[in-house]
Every structure is written in C-alpha cells, then in structure tokens.
Design a protein that fits this description.
The structure is a homodimer. With about 350 residues, chain A is an alpha/beta fold. Helices cover about 40% and strands about 15% of the residues of chain A. Chain A has a 7-stranded mixed sheet, sandwiched between helices. In chain A, strand 1, helix 5 and strand 2 form a beta-alpha-beta unit. The radius of gyration of chain A is 26 Å and the shape is elongated. The C terminus of chain A is likely disordered. The structure holds a DNA duplex (16 and 16 nucleotides).
DNA sequence: ATGAAAGCGCTAACAC
DNA sequence: GTGTTAGCGCTTTCAT
C-alpha cells in the first residue's frame, strides 16, 4: 500500500503538503501541486479512508435504513435520497432491516460505530435508536414512520389518503367496505385505518370491518379470507399497502371474485404493476421519490448546520389514482384492452397542506 | 466519547486487557472480565470501529453493488447475500449503481478506500473494477454477469432458460416468434438472445425477429412497437427481463392485443405480480435468492482462505413456469378466476448441470 | 507557504 | 495472564 509519506518522498516534499494538495485546501505553490499530483499519479496513490476518518472523526457516508427492500415504496425513496446525496458529496449505502427490530438496531449500531455522516431511517418502532445516534451526535431524519421522540421527519399524508380512498369507494356505491391494514405497532397502518374510519363515520356507517395483519403477502391473504368468511361479508376492500394487496388479490382470485364487478378494491402505493393486473387496480399514490429527496435535503442542512433548532416535520400530499378495480359501474363488457386506457388519473386530495413544517 | 483507556482506568486494568476482553480472544481471568464488562457498561463504552479498522487493516463490511434496485431479481439476490453474511459475522450494505458505470466505479472505489472485507458485484461492463479491487486484495464475487477477467462468479443458466422458453412457445403452436432483449453490452441480454436463437435454429426457423433495447420499461414499449409494426408481425414474444416485459405488456395492451389469445408471451424472471396480470404471465424463473446465497458463500470462503486457487464459476438452473400468457390453446371462456389456478408450474429444464465449478 | 510533530482509538507484539 | 509500547495513515496545529 502506497501511503502519503511515499508520495511526499517521491515529490520531494512533506506529508503535510501532500495532504494539503489532496484536499485542495490551502494555497500551495502551483509548482509543488504539480509535482505532488504527478508523484501520486506515478505511484498509484490511493488515500486510505480509514485513516482519514479516524483523524477527522467524521465520514461522508450516509446509512439509509429501510424496513423492506422488496417494497417499491422504499426503493423509490432510495432513489430520491441517492440523487440528493450525490449532489452534495455523500455516498449512500442501503441497509435492509427487513421489518426486524434487531437487524435495525444492528445497522444503527453500525452507523454509530462507523461514524456515519448521517442516517435516514424508517423505524420499526423503539426510540432507543434515536438516542443511540443522538449520543454520537449523528444527524438523523426519519421517513414514513415517526417516533414519540421529536426528530426530523418526512412522510406522506396516510390518513388523508386513506380517507379519500374510502370516500371514493363509497361514492362508487359500494355499501359494505372493509379495511385490511398493518400491525398496530406500525404508525402508517394505524393512520390508514384511522383515515378509513374517518370516511365511514362521515358517511354514518357503523360497521367497521377492520383486520390487522403483518405487512406481508400472507397477511393480505388471511386478512381477506377472514373478512370474506364473515356472515355479512364486505362488498369492497381498502388495503393499506402493496404487499397486503397482493395477498388480498390472490384470495379474491381463488374465490372467483373479480375486483370492480364483484367487489370494490383500492390499495395504498402505486406499484408499477398496478396497471397490469386484471382489472387494473385503483391506488393511493405516495410521492415516494419526493419523500426520499426531501429527507435527504433536510439531512444535508442538518449536517452543514444551515438547519438548526427543533425538528421539522414534512407531510407530502398523496394522489388518488382511479382505475377499474374500484369502479362499480364498470360493465363486464368493458374488460380487457380498454380497461387500462380508461383509467382516470389525478384526482388530487383536498385534504392537508402540501407540506407543513 | 469514552474510549478504551477510560474503561481500563475505571476497571483498574490496562487497555490491552480491555481489548482482549472485548474481542473475547485470550483467556483472561474471569474476575477481570467481570470488572471490565461492568466498567464498560457503566461508562457506556462503544468501540470505535474507525480506529479498530485502521489498526487491523480490515473491516467486516461487505459491499453488494447491484445494477438496479428496482429490479426484483436483485432484491432477491440481496436477501440471499444478507442471510449468509449475517450467519458469518459480516454486515452487508447495498449500493445501487443504477446501470451507470460511473456510479459503479464510485462504489468500487468506496469499497477499496474503506477496505471492505469483500465485494459482490453485478458488473455493468469494464474490468477496471476488478483490477482496482485486486490491487487492494479485496475478495470479489461477480453475480449475474461475468467479465473477461477470470473471477469467482455465480449466475443462472440464461441461455438454457431462454431456449426452453422459446421451445415452449413453438410447442404451443406459435409460428412467428420474436425476441426483445437487452443491450449488446449486457452479457445476460446476449445469452438470452442466443438461447432464443438456439431454439429457432433447432426448429428450422430462419426469420429471427430480434430487437435490442435498454433494460427499462420504455425499451420494452418501443421494442414491442417496432416488432408489431413490421410487415409480417410476430405472433409470440420472448422478453428478456421483467422491466422490458412491463413495457411490452403496456404496448400490447394499448393495441388491444391479449396475451395468450392474440399473441404468445413469455418473459424472464418470476416477479411476484406475474400471477396477477391479465392473463397471468409465463416466465423463466431464476433462483435469485440462491444466486445471492451461493455468491455470499464463495465470498466467505475466499475471505477465510478455505477456498483457494483459480476462480470458480457456478451456473444455477432456471425453471420454466407456464401460465396463461404463453398457452395458445387457452379458450377465451377460460378466463378470469380459473386462469390463475390452472397454471402449471415446475417444468424443469433438461439443460445444464445444477452447478458446475 | 511549508515542515515537524502530535495524536485520532485501537490492537498486537513483546516483555514480564 | 497481564501490562507496556509502538504504530496503523492521515490531518492539523504550531512553528518557521
């Protein structure tokens, strides 16, 4: 391994000068710069980040800890984070906590012990993480789900989106809606349930029909099965995320129930394949890329100190995308090729500000 | 920041002993262990990984550099890698190169300068990466795509899978197949095209009908459009990955062409939603999790030295999953609920060994 | 503008 | 079995 002292010797100068040249800090004599650069080049010198980090007591690495790498919401978030990070000279590495609290903790520990420049986290629960990072004074921005502790936070309006989705179902003439949501420990699950209930209450519907399941495909399957096996089964489903939606869809399919004709269906998250299902699925679209980008922007500002004071909270608007699965009126004849094209897109929610701080 | 010397003082011993206790290496007096542990606990001591890494000249971090985080093939690979890494005491961070060579280079550089314990990479092209890592003697395992330089490598049998898929189309009675594959620079794209051609040649079909497009949804759209606009359009499509498949599906949809009845369709990669499309899509399934797990296993063995000598190559079998989109016989009446259930699964390929070394 | 020197926190020889 | 000590490669005062 060729080190800085080798370059110094080769260029007939001192380690200090080489360091200065490499970090293009001070005004060094142009002639020396030339000599150092050429020497470094000739020797194939590569700075050792480990030594630099230890000396500087900081890195330029961000950890983005997400709860499920197979959820397209989070992969879109990741792209938003990466774009902003790159523009600001940070590298992002992704950590998949996999909805597992101990893995999450492990990655938080990694961030702390490796002195990450910043962390963006979608917390499973537990505020211990926050304290751990705070004690190492590593800036943290939460996404998707908040914690009781006040921390910078970016999310989208789950409750408003859920309410709009449910109201849409009711407007379409579905009369016995039900809700498949995530576990009580997940904030987004509870908010989406609450939005669903908001709509029911506003419409004077007393029977709630709610099931809580893990945010996985199996949860969607068993949740749908439970609801459909009841004495008075629902005629429409509001499903709180895309993994649950896949399970629910599978269950409907296996019972020969066709969304749009036999049962109404609307779900959270505009996954890329929602247009290709039979029939296309109506969704509440979250601005996932923006969630990531805004979170990254906040992190940059915390790191460089331009954002100070108490934590900010940003809530982004969702968008209702109406396709065939939620429309009651759709006649069976109108299936197939035309179904994809007739999808209405863009009914913006009336609820909530674009972003409040 | 509380450091090892603080713990030493607090427990009335030396830094060396504290270090030994923390790394549970030597046989230290149980009484001392107790005192050290309790002192560390009391002071809230956290080891500084930066210092440790610098001293040891190694880390326990793996970089997994993938070409597209939104491709479910790679997210499944990631889970395979993570499971094996965790069992062996390594942390995995994911880097999304986004099919961008300069980003990929950047992450390789990160791995080298941070002295990663190992790297798993799906290379976009360029063998410079390999040399860079080799010069820092960081073990590397390639996945999905190989390079001209010999390096440990795990993939699945693209060519065999493509051939089997195409043969299946022909057996179903489709007569004018076409192929939408990726760019010529992508090895998997070329192998799948080759497998497609193998089947055509074996069947004595002379007209190849092949288009090369970027591995993105737009590529699928324009690729399909090009083929369908020809004087003699194809009556069946073999599509080389899932992003392309989405675009192709969109194009078919917009022209009112229904897979299975109007046109045959089979694609690479068993994405979770392939069962939910209209109609369900036949696919060549890659053992993505296994690709990741096997690659990780090789990396472990390279790191601990139990695997030595020249690079190994592992080629895993693919699986043909036949659903409705490729079956010509499917009568229009058999749509809807039953279509998902009647899917045949499991026709194993006759080609290739399970894994050769 | 440049160099000398200290030291970031830890581990691994080496001595006892 | 435990302590002493040197030093990983770099940056950054502090002199000059």
């Amino acid at each position: 391994m060729v080190k800085i002292s080798d370059v110094a010797r080769e260029s007939g100068t001192s380690p200090a000068t080489v360091s200065r040249v490499l970090n293009k800090n001070d005004r060094v004599d142009p002639e020396l710069v030339r000599r150092v650069v050429s020497a470094a080049d000739r020797l194939g010198y590569r700075p050792n980040a480990l030594a630099r980090n230890l000396r500087r007591q900081r890195t330029s690495l961000w950890l983005l800890i997400i709860s499920d790498i197979e959820d397209s919401f989070f992969t879109s978030v990741a792209r938003g984070v990466e774009d902003v990070a790159q523009r600001n000279g940070f590298s992002v590495v992704l950590c998949n906590a996999d909805e597992d609290e101990s893995k999450e903790m492990q990655y938080v520990e990694l961030a702390a012990s490796e002195l990450a420049a910043g962390v963006i986290l979608s917390p499973h629960s537990a505020r211990t993480h926050v304290e751990r990072l705070a004690s190492s004074s590593i800036p943290l921005v939460l996404i998707d789900r908040s914690l009781s502790t006040p921390v910078d936070f970016v999310t989208s309006d789950s409750r408003g989106g859920a309410r709009a989705a449910t109201e849409h179902l009711l407007q379409q003439g579905w009369r016995r809606p039900a809700c498949i949501t995530g576990p009580r420990s997940a904030e987004t699950a509870e908010l989406r349930r609450a939005g669903y209930e908001d709509a029911l209450e506003a419409a004077g519907i007393r029977t709630k029909r709610i099931v809580h399941e893990p945010f996985h495909i199996d949860g969607g399957r068993t949740g749908a099965a439970q609801l459909l096996d009841r004495g008075k089964p629902p005629d429409a489903l509001f499903v709180a995320n895309s993994a649950l939606a896949m399970g629910a869809l599978e269950e409907l399919w296996s019972r020969g129930l066709r969304p749009g004709s036999d049962i109404g269906l609307i779900t959270f998250d505009d996954v890329p394949w929602a247009r290709f299902t039979d029939p296309p699925i109506s969704v509440v679209a979250q601005p996932a890329y923006q969630v990531g980008a805004r979170a990254a922007q906040m992190l940059v500002e915390r790191i460089n100190g331009s954002l100070q004071g108490k934590p900010r909270k940003i809530v982004l608007e969702t968008e209702l995308v109406v396709r065939a699965s939620s429309r009651r009126a759709l006649p069976p004849a109108d299936r197939g090729a035309s179904a994809g094209k007739t999808a209405i897109k863009g009914a913006h929610l009336a609820v909530a500000d674009t972003s409040r701080t």
